Amino acid sequence: MNWSIGKSPTRKDSLEKVTGAAKYTADFIGAQMLHVKLAVSSHAHAKLKKIDTAKAKQVPGVHAIILGPASPLTGDEVKDRPIMASDTVRYYGEPIAAVVADHPFQAKKAAELIEVTYEPLPVINSPKEALQPGATLLHKDLATYEKIPHVYPEANTNIANRTKIRKGNISQGWDESDITIEENFSFSPSDHTAMETRCTIVEIKPDGVVHITSSTQAPYKIKKQFAEIFGLEEGKVVVHAPFVGGGYGGKVATQLEFIAYLASVAVGGKPVKLLYTREEDMVSAPVRIGLDASIKLGATKEGKLTAAEITYLIDSGAYSDKGSMLTKAAAATCTGPYNIENVSCDALCVYTNHPYVTAYRGFSHSEILFVFERAMDILAKKLKMDPLVLREKNVFLPGMTTPTQTVLNHSTVGNLPNCIDKLKDLMNWDEGMVVRVADNKLRVKGISCSWKTSTISGASSGVVLLFNPDGSVNVLSGIVEIGMGTKTILAQLLAERLKMDINKIHVQMEVDTKVIPEHYKTAASRGTLLAGRALLKAADDAVSQLKHIASHVLTCSPDDLEVGYEKVYVRDEPETFVQVKDICYGYEFPNGNSIGGQVIGRGNYTLRHLTNLDYETGAGKSGPEWTVGAQGVEIEFDTTDYTYKLLNAYSVIDIGKVLHYKAAMGQVMGAMSMGLNHASAETFQFTQDAIISSPRLRTYGTFRYGDHPQYHVHFFETPHLDGPYGARGVGENGLIGMPAALANSLSIAAGVELTKLPLTPESIWRAKEGDEEK
Amino acid sequence: MDENAITLSINGRDTTCFVRNAATLLYILREKLGLTGAKPGCLNGDCGACTIDVDGEPMKSCLMLAVEGEGKKITTIEGMKQTTIQSQFIEKFAFQCGYCTPGFIMNCHALIQKHPDATDDMIKNWMESNICRCTGYKEIEDAVKTALRQANQNTDG
């Protein structure tokens, strides 16, 4: 019987969040705080001939105007991005200048009076265009940019990174195949659209200590980058991450923090706040990747996959940020959850004149699965085979080898055949995929399978447990509460380990990098694994300290003691005990002698045994474990006008031990909604000059109440032995199969192979009419 | 910078403050009065994160000037204490990041007060004015429908 895990205790942030008391970055307000507003580019690619700030300076209340310095350059893997554009703008909306003023309206007014003279340059509007011979080079200095090892920019091209997968013998794979299919897929970049637009406050204190408060998923990365880029001591950079209003990957990037630092420097270190408008948050801040892909699959007539040859061209936009790592993840995951002996894949991170990209929930997986799972349906159709049967014949099982040549085992991969069986059940698969419900109405099912790991080698986390005199415990972890509830789950894990009331466990919500142990980043569905393991180690440390003190009080060996129920007791004589509250600050004997002191538990955890991928073959261990799932969608499709309704959406996911049922359900349903939203509506619309028309919520197509389908979610619990109590990552899995499942259902419904996103009635009509250029 | 004194009735108390004529009510609530529960999300009425209650109607405070608030009864999330809809949001896990939550709660609360017998269509019409990007809306649906049911029972009883 579990004490706490598997149940659904109330979230620790509940009362703050339903009363408006929860503070997000923009909610920190001070009378002395100055405000920053940006002037941004109206061109996607141009030389900056002149920036005239004379009129802007005249605006009352203006303190300073900052232009982009040519150096230092910034970037996570390749340093290719100036803090603001200095001599060239490379995307529409790129920051050019920042104004600091007393009030936001003054800063805004001045920013609009900055006159920029541009000399337009040729625009690259897709990865394919970027790779054409003679294409304009967006980064002439690519070869000389600073970079980390294991990222491979190609000089004199627009390629910021390439990851290759070479598994088996591809020509043998084609020889063994009876049937092949080939298809091309593409979609444009889109946006994270967290409800909280990005915001930061920077202040430099008289002692030189830089305080950064930010809506970030990666406070410790900001600390490192500030030290590195501005030449500061790490101990003098303090990052505060209060509640964050949604991230979905978009807030792992550091951008506005650098600008705000320059702004604070310009006004003598005074606190400055930079709050992005919705339009800036969508376009100026980093976005989600676009993709051009081509795929060829070979199979025997029995449906055994024998070969896959794939090219993924990732639209990284103007700079690489996380683009090079998204490329690596795309290559490592390139075949979806299927065992294919012969694989050749090239994933390229390609510069274009689009907004630059960063992580997005799923980290390439949903994008790659859209391509691969659509190809699987096309293959099934050609084989005249049930698409789920084709998948069953090829799924990854323990003992098989991933595209990066890692051998899977019963712990590192979940049970996909179980998921597929359950999906059939839930979807009433035997009924058939198409049911005519009226003359012009079809009810149609589509499915996909998925897998996900996290290519984050070196990621680690630390946890400190501080006991209070009443025996309650404060949990300090560098996880940022961005919505997924991990801090509540940490409390649950501790309650389970110490068999204590979860209400006596207090989690520190705000992260302060000066006093809270580091957690890598709140990303990649790894909060529970990293921080959970660190917490269990810290709990063990506290337990051993408690036993040590108790052993003196109870005059026995610590080996004979157990900790639980807020007591330390003798294992085979539980009525002999001492209360935790009586020893967690040390113990005073009746004669006045004292021993011990405050119990402080410490723990850390680092992902083990991950390796870099070999440049020639991609061989290497890319991630800690693979969460698998089978997903489906049922739609009602109108054959006359190609409109459709989302009726039902299904997710069967093997998430290992379910730690918090309602939180897991919330993660999965929310992610499903996000996947369906992306697939059905979300995209940036680019003009041929790569200008983005109407970046605002009203026209972007964000789901609202009532757009949601009925959700059907089922979990399997194959344990990941490294995970706390056997849990796997779950934050992204609900999303990643959804675009493919929706596209598969619509392809069947419309009778045409759909290869582009988003799937609007108009885009289906264009595909159906065979004229994509209409 | 010209500012004029206005008096606003907020959460049952009259407050006098100096405002520019062009300042939105959202800006004044947050920057002058420290009531940061109403959130900026778009500043043009698209997202509903800044929803407050004005004379019993849900109102996006980014679409209203502060000077328009004079003489009206304004309730913000800070004025909501232990309401059914708040406990239902907790019970049903109807929030994750929590940024849209105050706006949703204010909108739901006004709906429950005005239309305790709201139909599914009416609920949809009302809720469509707010965006939540974390949940799949199912939890919010459960919270608002349960709160409506409870309001109905109270009315009947």
TrEMBL record, chain B:
The keyword Iron-sulfur applies. Residues 4-80 form the 2Fe-2S ferredoxin-type domain. The keyword Transmembrane does not apply. Keywords: 2Fe-2S, Iron, Iron-sulfur, Metal-binding, Oxidoreductase. This is (2Fe-2S)-binding protein. It comes from Tigheibacillus jepli.
